[in-house]
Amino acid sequence: MLEYDILIVGAGGAGLYAALWASQNPNLKVGVMTKVYPVRSHTGAAEGGINAALANVAEDSPEKHAFDTVKGSDYLADQDAVEIMTKMGPEIIYDIEHRGVPFSRLPDGRIAQRPFGGASFPRTCYAADRTGLVILHTLYDQTLKQGVEFLNEWFLLNVIHNGERVLGVTAWDIRNGGVHFIKAKAVILATGGHARMYWNRTSNALGNTGDGTAAVFRAGLPLKDMEFVQFHPTGLRKTGILITEGARGEGGYLINKDGERFMKKYAPEKMELAPRDIVARSIEREILEGRGCGENGDYICLDLRHLGEKKLMERLPQTVEHARVYEGVDPVKEPIPIRPTAHYSMGGIDTDKYGQTEIKGLYAAGEAACISVHGANRLGGNSLLDILVFGKITAEHAAEYVVGVEHLPTEGGEYVKREEEFISSLMDKEPKEKLADLRREMGDVMASKVGIFREEKPMVEALEQIRELKERAKSGLAVTDRSKRFNLNLIQTLEFLNLLDLAEVTALCAIERKESRGAHYRLDYPNRDDENYLKHSIVRRREDGTLQHGWKEVVITKWQPQERKY
Amino acid sequence: MTVERAVLRVYRYNPERDEKPYYREYEVPVDKAQTLLDALFYIQENLDPTLGFRFFCRAAVCGSCAVKVNGISRLACKTPFKNLVERANGKPITVEPLNFLKPIKDLVVDHDQPFESLKKLQTWCEPKEPIPEKEYRIPPEEVKQYERPTNCILCFACYGSCEAVMDDPKYAGPYAFSRVYRYVLDSRVKEEHKREMVKNAMDVGDIWSCVQCQKCIYVCPKGVRPAEDIQNVRGIAAEYGFKDYPGVKKLQHFVDWIYATGQINRLSLPEEVYGVDPTPLINKFKERGAEVWEVPKPLPGLLEFRDLYLEVMKEKKPHLDIDFHHVRKIDKRVEEVFNADVCTKITERFEEQREDFFTRFWKKLSEFFGTK
Ligand SMILES: Cc1cc2nc3c(=O)[nH]c(=O)nc-3n(C[C@H](O)[C@H](O)[C@H](O)COP(=O)(O)OP(=O)(O)OC[C@H]3O[C@@H](n4cnc5c(N)ncnc54)[C@H](O)[C@@H]3O)c2cc1C
Ligand code: SF4
Ligand code: SF4
Ligand code: FES
Predict the structure, then answer these.
(1) Span from the CA of A84 to the centroid of ligand 3 (angstroms)
(2) Is B150–A98 a contact, with Cβ atoms under 8 angstroms apart?
């Protein structure tokens, strides 16, 4: 049986950074389990940058960074946690810089910073347009240096606890097949976000399926603020792949089917460069009101043709390539079909400001966790900071905790057996449903009814439909590949079941929150309602499988809620 | 309307139950797939759920999905399907796993080994002391220098195409040396560690086995140029004074002799590089009446040409900082060999003749090649 003092699940930015800090103490046995090789993790897709108040370009302070974050969160973030994050920002940036992250530089050799949406100062550090990639790879190189032990291509199934302490996890070895119990005194879940519940309407990787979040939920522990999902205005129509904000920054136009630059109706001054949520809602409104382009009127055009081939190739080479490869459209000659795409999960595993859950030894960090530092809306560049800060904090906390405790006496046989039975039951079922169909239906339901615009009736329908999908999956979704080795069919089915659980919670929370705040926009309750809803929503699953919804206070330290105006 | 269909001929092998690999053909409607990865999904979702392949980001940034398509390594998610179909011209499109890596299942190959190589080469940052309180100061030009190698997504497409890997299983792989180069260029890294990485590149990674076929450059989906990075690391090895490697010696020999005479010295090469005394071999040739190699003399016009070239380079590319001191040293050695004054006093000569360099340069060139 595998046994660790600290087991980290997930090897994106949060997981790797946690591993580096947890393994500082050479006496601790630390392991990292991940369903894909570490450098494949979605952190590598982050382009824009990472925020910290270095004040290299303009005067700035952690305090100002904290205020921008709280305001951006529409006052739903816990202000004590935000202060911890912004205060640690500079030291974290310096640490990863010392480890070799190739940040872009100012002429005098200091780290360059650029302005980003919602920030009052240029405070986003970046490495050209591949900040996440170089952070992920640099941290990976450091884990090799530190001799961190990896379980690559292992899939987390469930978190095991005894109501008080965590015992470990169950996992499936993807390469060889087979269920294992992994014993651990502490477990840090850094399994990333769950925006794949919108299936093809997300910028996220195919595997961002909230497995850790769903495992915690199945373990009877609370999830927080699940109704908040950030939409980015410009995803490619077919795949949701992100087209960077830079395309509009360089002067791109958003055009409806009448060839009109419709942003003049919604944000006459800022036009295409209005804040993300406003642009996303404007695009969605055009589509809903029948002014979308194409046969089905289901997209809007991003027109870059007037910028000319030379400028496009120089300034936006990625965008040109993405449009050509993934949409089959040459932006030099044609407009790019786009629509808003689910981008970031603000909600997740409910933790305190140290990333601790209710269960001793069980932590969460990164996009999987809801600490919460992003509240109802995350600022661009704050997520990469969040994953590193709380990767470190949880690791240090866990490292301290495990020193004082012994492993619980269990061999885990019963847990393994339960998982094996479950997997057999998936394989023994009569296949009546197709995974691809169910998955697409889930995505469509979520995007059309629990997406950018929300309203009571369609959301209640959506909740019903998700529950029906769950029923259909339960009775008719089988794993038809019975082999052990690299069984994709099994993994994808498990991922889908996780997404369904989380989609149900998301729909429920969205119904319960009868106000508009941050990314959660309700047509039937268009205003923020601090009196009733300045609260985190909390959902947990009862023993019988039904959902229990409740609320939790928001921590307010320095900044009283004001109207969020830019 | 009938939908155009393309045939994919896919490598299948599940060691769990297949005795040996085989190929299976699948028909995929062309309009159902934007990329090759979509085509594989189409197969998996509609025709055969047991097909094994890797993917994650579907946007050419995670490095999971490299496979071999009609013999060439590519990212499945970055290969437009339509282009493939057009080029295939009705013939099946063959999809196979990357070369040289242990098979796991179907298109999935072992990635542990190539990741392990990075660990062996120790490609990481050991920060130089003293570690500053804030960030290290690094000029933007330095960061530019390692921009290309830091684009690498470790997809191992280059590994699967590498001629050196084919011949030398110990060879670490193109991507690994780009990573070495990236950290050697980084002024934050301790000098000792840089030397360590370069030494590892030779001792552990067999960097001298690269045959400069340039395939790694051709297949890289991210514009990394490992073959060039390898040449640079080799040069750095020589600069670091790693004299005991045949590769370094060969390089030194090539540079010196070609520079001085326009050709290598086949008489002294074996001795200089491998410490082998060539006399017995030469004698054997002589006994049999064969023509014996001689110490090469500078080709006619070479030295003048060389000087002109250097001067032009100096003017056009001042940043290259051509080391005339080293040049003198080589000339000196050649002088010793020939016992004659072939040393050309470049700087003096050009003080005298300040006419248009290019005219003379081209004149010399045509003289050199015997054309008008
Ligand atoms: C296109 C795009 C651009 C972005 N740009 C920016 C930006 O510029 N700035 C910014 O701050 N943020 C950005 N973000 C957001 C940011 O990248 C993510 O929020 C962040 O990287 C998440 O990091 P993480 O470590 O929490 O998770 P991830 O990097 O997603 O890693 C999750 C890890 O968990 C593992 N895992 C998941 N499930 C399992 C399982 N069942 N078993 C075992 N392992 C599992 C995975 O293998 C992976 O290693 C962007 C996001 C997207 C989609
Ligand atoms: S140039 Fe060298 S490293 Fe690149 S593919 Fe050829 S042999 Fe391999
Ligand atoms: S150098 Fe290019 S081909 Fe090789 S692993 Fe890196 S990205 Fe892939
Ligand atoms: S799936 Fe990530 S590179 Fe192709």
Answers:
(1) 38
(2) no
